[in-house]
Amino acid sequence: MKHVNWPWTIGFVIALAIGSAAATLLGNYWLFLFTGAVIAAIALKGIGLVAGRAGMIALSQMAFAGIGAWTVAYLNVWQVPGTLFLWVPIGGLVAVPFGIAIALPALRLRGIHFAIVTLGFAAAFDSILAATTFPGQTQFIQVPRPPGFTSVPMYFYFVVAVYAVISIALDIVSRTPLGASWVGIKHSERGTAAHGVSVAWSKLTAFAIAAFVSGVSGGLLAGQLQTLVSDSFNIMVSLIYYAVTVMAGAHLAEGALIGGMLIIFFPELMRRLNLPQDIGNIAFALGATQALSMGGSIAADLRGGLRRLRRKVGIRPKTYPEVMRKAGQITPPPVAEGARSVLSIKGLGVKYGQVVALDNVDVEVPEGAVIGLIGPNGAGKSTLIDAVTGFLPSYQGAITLDGGKLDGLDAHKRARAGLRRTWQTTRIPAELTVGSYLNMAARRGLAPAEMDEILQWIGCPHPSTPIATVDVGTRRLLDVAGVVAARPKIVLLDEPAAGQSYEESLFLAQRITEIPEKFGASVVLVEHDIDMVRKACNSIYVLDFGRVIAAGPPAVALEDPDVVRAYVGAVEEETAA
Asked: Is this model's pTM higher than 0.70 or not?
């Protein structure tokens, strides 16, 4: 049976059930409120994409909704054919360039600094609304609802249908490498760029789509209210919607609906209890603070509870037969005599002020080889990998990949050219599934057979498995699975055995020796585990104080007196201490 995203499906079914019950059982007043809740849920979906998935603090999304509403109002005044069927998507499209313009500072700014920029845009739009009126407002020109959906119940069905289309579309996109990249940049921009993802493009697309969705919500609100007022889109509304997005988990379909219900019905409850409306704002702020401090949300907690319930009733996710992570015979891959150099590093030098991190380093990686890079802490190993992969652009020397110069290329462009790396600490987004992470790392939709083959080869769980449920050791293996899935020319593994047991390290060493033949990539292995390096590598380079002090087959280089003093001696001193 094909894997189904049960929490999302159940959330969507609940939404339809609530809609049907409301349309059948409630009067027009309550149905009007439910319509507002679904429109609010659409707006929250836009905010959730930027804040929940991409992890950017955006406080201006309701301004985009106002732009969509303003556009619909103008189209109505101008009597443009098409009614809301056409006007609503046009309103969304008009909001897109504004979303892109706001996203541009996000390419340089982070966190609170970017939040201030978006808040400034919301304040500016608020000022414009306060100084003007919506088109047609002074002439009492109402925005008509689309033909066939003019009544309150029918317009409710229309809004629910739009919410369903947007939710399904965003869910489909979220399963693509682009959607996974949004979650990736939230977790680690450097880690995502290392997979060949343009962080700038990911941020711009997230804001563009979010602005479109928010613009659509504004157009629908114009159809619901028919006469617009500026208070619907002021700066305080943007802040409230952001708080509810965080608290409810609006990037999830059920979270957006929950948030929409809170926004519309909590004030109604306060009104009926004769309590100040500001109590709702305080409650939303406290809920958002709690969600941020606990790292969860209402929808995420519901999904977690549903997963636990499924396990209790015996519904288990798909798994592969257990892979025994035990090594057999470990033999470095044979390298043909005179094999061409795939990666060439000439005269590499890096300085941090007056500190020399790398000094005139030369490294050659032949085709089909596994090359070790070792040395004591502070020798310059990670600096070398950062420079080669483009995360340290200020260096001296020349780096070529398969004969092409890499100097001056951004990190994501080097990755696309065939240079992939892992990190000392895993940077896999926990919100993804195993399969969505591999698709993002490969920058393409892997065929199910290919994905299964890679995961079973490395001993990782089924593609449907949430990464949040996977242990740290398995995530280290997923790092390796991700880089080889891209079929690069060079794989740079930065301490992949960190945190692994001795038996697991040997298993990984065996898999590393298979990479050149199985995936067509040469390997550079940075490791402190000398036994693993000795077994897996054809040749090694030993660094100390930023210089190559020895190079050659492991049996020869490790016996060099300088290596014994600089590397082995350092290990012995650490052991003695």
From this structure: yes
**CA–CA separation, 533 and 521 (whole Å):** 18
CA–CA dist 346, 332 (Å, integer):
25
Could you tell me which of 60, 57, 252 has the C-alpha nearest to residue 174? 252
* Residue 427, both tokens: 């940077």
Q: DSSP class of residue 321?
A: P
Contact between residue 49 and residue 171 where contact means Cβ atoms under 8 Å apart: no
The pLDDT value given to residue 577: 38
User: Per-residue pLDDT averaged across 403-430, rounded?
Assistant: 93
Per-residue pLDDT at 546: 92
Is residue 312 within a helix (H) or strand (E), and if so which, with residue range? helix 298-312
pLDDT score at 125: 84
Tell me: the pLDDT tens digits for 12-59? 666 666 666 666 677 888 889 999 999 999 999 999 999 988 988 888
Cα-only R_g, the chain = 28
- CA-CA distance, 509 to 487, in Å (whole number)? 19
Return the structure tokens found at 464.
């449907």
In this structure, what are the phi and psi dihedrals at residue 558, rounded to the nearest 5 degrees?
A: -70, -15
For 326-345, the DSSP string reads ------PPP--TTPPEEEEE
E strand spans, 367-507: 370-374, 396-401, 404-405, 419-421, 490-494
Place of tokens 């977790």: 187
Helix (H, G, I), strand (E, B) or coil at 359: strand
